[in-house]
């Protein structure tokens, strides 16, 4: 599994893969492992990396994770890889929701002219029997839906165009 986090203004890319009873972590082209997290209660647990264990306290608020370990608190901003691939800004006034993978439109949840809030489901797509919800990353108005239900598309295709409210 590939993940992306922003901590103190720096983006970190990491991958996790199953390894024995835990995971292997690939961070900055360095393999770290085994990595095991044991949750011991609401908001606390033990993180074990390469045999060394540390108590951890955490709080999750949407895509923001507050982690307290070794006397320091860090704020991690999770970057959903599908949302990152699905949305790219091409013009100042428009936001383009792009296809993160080739597939087909299962359902469309919005219509042109409809105002939407950040996080609103725009459409459900399917690729290799995996269904994914394409969500609005910010407030705006649906300008155009580029594919109808049942139509297929390629990776990177523009699925929905949003414009800023009042434009």
Automatic annotation (TrEMBL):
<dbReference type="InterPro" id="IPR050709">
    <property type="entry name" value="Biotin_Carboxyl_Carrier/Decarb"/>
</dbReference>
<feature type="domain" description="Lipoyl-binding">
    <location>
        <begin position="88"/>
        <end position="163"/>
    </location>
</feature>
<dbReference type="InterPro" id="IPR000089">
    <property type="entry name" value="Biotin_lipoyl"/>
</dbReference>
<dbReference type="InterPro" id="IPR011053">
    <property type="entry name" value="Single_hybrid_motif"/>
</dbReference>
<dbReference type="Pfam" id="PF00364">
    <property type="entry name" value="Biotin_lipoyl"/>
</dbReference>
<protein>
    <recommendedName>
        <fullName>Lipoyl-binding domain-containing protein</fullName>
    </recommendedName>
</protein>
<keyword id="KW-0092">Biotin</keyword>
